[in-house]
Each structure stands twice: as C-alpha cells, then as structure tokens.
Amino acid sequence: xxxxxxxxxxxxxWKATRAAVAALAENGLNCYIFGSAACAIYGMKNxxxxxxxxxxxxxxxxxxxxxxxxxxxxxxxxxxxxKDPHATFEVLWYSLPERRPGINHACKVDIxxxxxxxxxxxxxxxxxxxPPADDIPLxxxxxxxxxxxxxxxDHGADPRLHVRDKLRQDERDVFxxxxxxxxxxxxxxxxEEWIPKDFLEEFNGYIRQYIPxxxxxxxxxxxxxxxxx
Length: 229
Description:
- The chain is an alpha+beta fold.
- The protein contains 8 helices and 5 strands, in the order αβαβαβββααααα.
- Helix 1 (10-26) packs across helix 3, helix 4 packs across helix 7 and helix 6 crosses helix 8 (218-224).
C-alpha cells in the first residue's frame, strides 16, 4: 500500500491506537501513548493530532521488530519505506476505510521504546487511563508536558528552517499544557516520585532554557514543584 492522501480524523486516530494496543497486548506487551494524541485526550485544544506516538515497554525488542510484530498480528497494519532514501527503517501505517474509492486512507503509528528521545520506562501502575478514551494507556501528565518541552528544545536546535518553523506551535502547546496542569489537574512533582532522577535533571535544564524566553510561565512551573532559581 501507499501513503494516504489526507490525514485521519480524531476518531480514526483512536481506532488505530486501540488496534495497536490490542495487537501488542496479544503479544504480551504493554505500552503508552504520548505526543499530540495523548495531549488531546487530556484536553489540549491547541493542536489536532495527525498520528499516534506509541512507546512499547520492552527491553528485549527493537523498533523494527515491533513494527513487524504488529503487521503479523493485525492485517490492517502495513509498512512503507521511509521517504529518506538513506533510512534503514520502514514507516508503520494502519489502514482505514477509504473516504473516496481507490484512494488509500490510513493513520501513521510511530513505535518507540524507552530510552529513545529520553522517553522514560514508566511503571505499569503509573500509566494513566482517563475519559474520554479510558481504554487507551497514556503517559502521565508531567512527563508528557516535559516531552513537549523537549520538542521545543530539539526544534530550536535544528538548523533546518522547516523544523524551526514548529517552534511557535511548540510554545503554544507547552503553555496550554502548563495551564491545564495547574488549573484543571492540580498535578505536582511530589506525587510523581517514580520519575527517574536523571530524567528530571535533564528536563530541569530544559526548563532553565525555556524560562528566559517565556518568563510568564514561571508561576506555572513553580506550582508544579519545579525548582526555579
């Protein structure tokens, strides 16, 4: 199959997510989602998710092995070569019903494992299930916020203009997530003792880089329990 011509709807994204979670569970594997799809379930309105970012909790399987596992388990998953001619990986897609006859329609599913992009290995008891999609495993809120902050750091350090163009979107994402954290969820670091110390040390550095450009966010970081000096 080829790449789809239009992005999936939100309901189609949840369908693809549930299929991936079910296929992994069939193989005895747990997972959680992060990125914009997870943010949408938590209530972020600033960005419409276009795909699924899924972390498989394993230390024995590699990413390509996991992609092939999904393809073998569920016939609606398929692989497409990367657009990068030098890439050694394939891209995983979940086939959706055609919107127009003869035109492929699908949702991209990115498969990651802990350690990549600083993604933490989250204890099963800390994975979050919440309405409106309480059957989908989510990254806990504070790490999710920090991973969005890392996106801002990474995009700002990238020399490619089309990547740096994402900075303003990242800033809107981080600000909305901060407001939701403090005003709606009331989350705090003291209730997240499971978060690895090296993870927090790395991300405290990112917060220190962020604050000079966005001093108006200081009260939010402080309310979450981050040391601001």
